[in-house]
Amino acid sequence: MCDFDPDSQIRILRLCPGDAASPLPATFEALTIKPFNSSESFAFEAISYAWERQPPIIDLLVDQKPVRISKIVHQILKNLRYTLRARRLWIDGVCVDQANKIEKQSQVALMTHVYRNAVSVIIWLNVAGLEDAAEGFQTAIAWLDSGFDRDSLLSLNKGVRSNLFEPSFHRKTLISWFRERHPGLKCKSPFHELTRVEWFTVSG
User: Fold this and answer.
1) Residues 194 and 125 sit within 8 Å (Cβ to Cβ)
2) Cis peptide upstream of residue 35 (ω within 30 degrees of 0)
3) 110-163 pLDDT, tens digit each
4) Residue 128 is assigned to a structural domain of this protein
5) How far is CA 170 from the centre of its chain?
6) CA distances from 24 to 54, 64, 87, 96, 124 (A)
7) Quick count: other Cβ atoms within 10 Å of Cβ 56?
């Protein structure tokens, strides 16, 4: 891995272009993040994802040397790689030496700077097994646009508060409230299904 100061710099993965069937060659570039000077730095994107307790079992070739990564990280990089041009990404499973405890502590202290100064943050959700996840997000946006609040939920309960904190109660009343106001929106995977994805519980 490239030489850098873990207290002030991060590694950025410069992912070489390619198609879905080609290998994933990449290089590391050191970026001073604290302090961050946009005029003297380069743009990068940060990735937030759930580790899903996967061990590193796949070798990624970085600067012509193997770096061991997990299946989920490999999948993310394969899907985010551009076909015709390189892409600069920060993802902790690659850019932080997971075997170096001292480095990991220093890099954790820089996380706020990483996400604050990235040109965009990509949230990667593993939605395998969810039917039509895109419609779930559409539902979530419609819920937000509808101005749903706690009082609306209570009014649907018709004064019976015994089940107020039961997940099944919230699930049923949220769906009925939403469908009452959006009868034309047929959603096979409401937002509450998406919140079961591990990222919403523990993100990395």
Assistant:
1) yes
2) yes
3) 999 999 999 999 988 876 666 666 666 666 666 656 655 555 555 555 544 444
4) no
5) 26
6) 20, 11, 12, 18, 19
7) 17
Cβ atoms of residues 76 and 121 within 8 Å: no
**Is the same domain home to 156 and 191?**
yes
In a domain, 76, yes or no: yes
Residue 2 lies in a domain: no
Higher-confidence position of 194 and 121: 121
Tell me which of 57, 89, 123 is where a domain ends.
Answer: 123
Partnered with residue 87 across adjacent β-strands are 15
Q: Are residues 52 and 116 in the same domain?
A: yes
Cα 109 from chain centre:
19
Furthest-apart CA atoms within the chain: distance in Å:
66
Any domain includes 59: yes
The single-letter code of the amino acid at 197 is V
Classify residue 73 by burial, with Cβ atoms within 10 Å: 0-12, 13-18, 19+: buried
Residue range(s) defining the domain that contains residue 90: 9-123
- The answer on 90 and 13 residing in a single domain is yes
